[in-house]
Amino acid sequence: MITIKDLKKSFNGLEVLKGVNLTIPDGKITFIMGQSGTGKSVLLKHIVGLLKPDSGEIWFENKDITKLSEKELQKIRRKIGFLFQEGALFDSMTVKENIIFPLKEHFKMSKAEMEKIAEELLSAVDLLFAKNKYPSELSGGMKKRAALARTLALRPQVVLFDEPTTGLDPILQVSILELIKNLKEKYNLTCIIVSHDINLAFKFSDYIAFLHGGVIIEVGTPEEIKASNNEFVKKFIESALL
Amino acid sequence: MNFFSLLGRGFLKVLSDCGGIFLFFLKSLIYSFFPPYRVKLLIKHMEFIGVKSWLVVILTSLFSGMVTAYQVNIALAKVGSQSILGGVVALTLTRELGPVLTAVVVIARAGSAISAELGSMRITEQIDALKIMAVNPIQYLISPRLWAAILVLPLLTAISDFVGIAGGYVVGTFLLHIDPGLLTARMVDMVELKDIMSGIIKSIFFGAYLVTVCGYKGYYASGGAEGVGRATTEAVVISTVGILVVDYILTTLIF
């Protein structure tokens, strides 16, 4: 379980997060929804320690992530994977080398073992045929699937997804989220997905949290969110259904 | 008031950059002493910085040696001391021109590439991806390059010294018709081991300096493709001007 308490963050005097409070349950898919530029990705980067907050706490496995040193954070990061919006694959390496990279860094395995794991992961994301391609040769959806395979290589307990469906066509959006759901079941993952697509959230989430004005204004299951009386949430859902 | 405010802001930016670059250097150096030791990366970067630069270094040094001999001869002719041409050319090359020209060539060829590559990795979040995978990005990206430049610059400088002196010899002998025996004898008389070593030692500092500046600018690039271009330009300008400043400081203080 991840617990965020009164998290605040400003950039050049602009207060982006004004006291976020949120609990992320284990083994579930939680969507963080909100308009563009409301700080959803900023919140995600705090959870994995890429950004330090001005104040507030983030608790994971009885440790406050915001107070950890870079060395202690490295241990935590092996348990929390992060899927970047554009994949952030290393463009000097092939897809398979990208997946082998974290294995080589953290495990003492033979080359054959690492290749076997990489190919298993690529099969899981249906990308085995592209194992020897470079990221520049892949489409947007393929890059995201390759990045997902790389994220899973370290067997994380939690995976954070920064807008995994942005820029993809509707069929690919659904296939990526189905893939995430299947992998969540297979590897018993806790998934946090930042998105602004409410329809996908209703279909694939266990919980939805709305970030608006720098705070979480509503949290609940998809049914609870559909029945919400919050004006902003109602407007957001109505706009999406237009 | 605005003028002083701008001046102060500029001064603070320079100070902050200097501090940042120095801390970046210390981190790169210290992390390199902790495992994992990245020998394969070190060799890869030695090839990129050294092996792929030798031809440009040779061409630059050859013509610099030749033109130095030609110009120095004009000056020496005025006082009737053309016999010491070989010694003066060799001293100029080993103490100053060799290490400085080599460093400038490496900045232009490899330093700019280091800055652009790291800047591109920064804006496409590849550096953040390294952090997420619990890999220390400075230790992975900068430390091997730092040691590669420290090891390779002295070798390139030695090549540069040799080729430059050979260029001076060719011009002195065939174009200016100075006796080859006299030319080499004066070189041997005037150039001591410490002259050659002062240039070689300087090049070690130059290697560390250029990788640190180019690495720092690329590593902290921001603002998309335009930001990468800006970072690369700043890296080349600051490291080239800085090499001359460092050269002056080393020459006056140590050599």
From TrEMBL, chain A:
Superkingdom assignment: Bacteria
Pfam families assigned to the protein according to its UniProt record, in alphabetical order: ABC_tran (PF00005)
UniProt keyword annotations, A-Z: ATP-binding, Nucleotide-binding, Transport
InterPro entries assigned: AAA+_ATPase, ABC_transporter-like_ATP-bd, ABC_transporter-like_CS, P-loop_NTPase
GO MF annotations, alphabetized: ATP binding; ATP hydrolysis activity
Domain ABC transporter: 2-238
UniProt cross-references to PANTHER family, sorted A to Z: INTERMEMBRANE PHOSPHOLIPID TRANSPORT SYSTEM ATP-BINDING PROTEIN MLAF, PROTEIN TRIGALACTOSYLDIACYLGLYCEROL 3, CHLOROPLASTIC
Name used for this protein in its record: ABC transporter ATP-binding protein
Organism: Thermodesulfobacterium geofontis
From TrEMBL, chain B:
Residues that span the membrane, as ranges: 12-34, 54-76, 146-176, 196-219, 231-250
Location, primary (coarse class): membrane
Membrane topology: Multi-pass membrane protein
UniProt subcellular location: Membrane
Cellular component terms per the entry's GO annotation: ATP-binding cassette (ABC) transporter complex
UniProt xrefs under InterPro entries: ABC_MlaE_roteobac, Permease_MalE
Keywords recorded for this protein, A-Z: Membrane, Transmembrane, Transmembrane helix, Transport
Highest taxon in the source lineage: Bacteria
Keyword Signal (UniProt): no
Pfam families associated with the record: MlaE
Keyword Zinc: no
Family according to the record: Belongs to the MlaE permease family.
Stated name of the protein: ABC transporter permease
Organism from which the protein derives: Thermodesulfobacterium geofontis
